[in-house]
């Protein structure tokens, strides 16, 4: 599915969630509901605020990263659109580096749109999309790609939620193949 911002794509709300009216280049219209309730938004776009060229550029960046690990166009679009909404409108998460392991001093090269992995001090693993490599506070903004990441005890992060950590907590993406963890730098 190809989406161009000039095709009447707009931000809106549906059942208390930030949503996007999408029109494909073929002229088919869709309503896409993001993961974000109105209460979780830092900035609330007016109904029918255009999905801009900058939004489309973010979408391309995020989808390109997700496409490297996920070959399902529909799921990649879903994650990409949620990432744009997360980056543009969701309240920045509080810094949570204390819950995650630093990567042992080795610098990992990553950029906006890359898929990376973070490890909790309690032994859990989460895969994330890099929203911003370094924000104004020097932290990396990530969006969780897993259904849920248990951080500590009963504290957890659901799919699509923003995580802000020090860059040294970000690791290269891992995937499990044949029971072994394989890292992609």
Task: Please summarize what this structure is.
The chain is of the alpha+beta class and 185 residues long. It is 17% helix and 36% strand. Helix 1 (53-67) packs across helix 2.
Question: Termini, distance in Å?
Answer: 29 Å
CATH fold naming of the largest domain? SH3 type barrels
**What is the overall silhouette?**
globular
What is the mean pLDDT?
A: 87
How would you write the strand order of the largest sheet?
10-7-6-5-11-12
Helix content: 10-25%
Elements, N to C (H/E): EEEEHHEEEEEEEE
DSSP summary: helix tally: 2
Q: Give the domain tally.
A: 2
What does this protein structure show overall?
The chain is α+β, with helices and mostly antiparallel strands. The protein folds into 2 domains: 10-89, no CATH class; 97-184, SH3 type barrels (Roll), CATH 2.30.30. Helices cover 17% and strands 36% of the residues. The chain contains 2 helices and 12 strands; from the N terminus they run E-E-E-E-H-H-E-E-E-E-E-E-E-E. The chain has helices at 53-67, 73-89, and strands spanning 10-14, 17-23, 29-37, 49-50, 115-119, 125-132, 140-144, 148-152, 155-158, 162-165, 171-177, 180-184. The strands form 3 sheets. Strands 10-7-6-5-11-12 form a 6-stranded antiparallel sheet. A 4-stranded antiparallel sheet has the order 3-2-1-4, with helices on one face. Strand 1 (10-14) and strand 2 form a beta hairpin. Helix 1 packs across helix 2. The radius of gyration is 17 Å and the shape is globular. It starts with 9 loop residues before the first strand and ends with a strand. Residues 176-185 have low confidence and may be disordered.
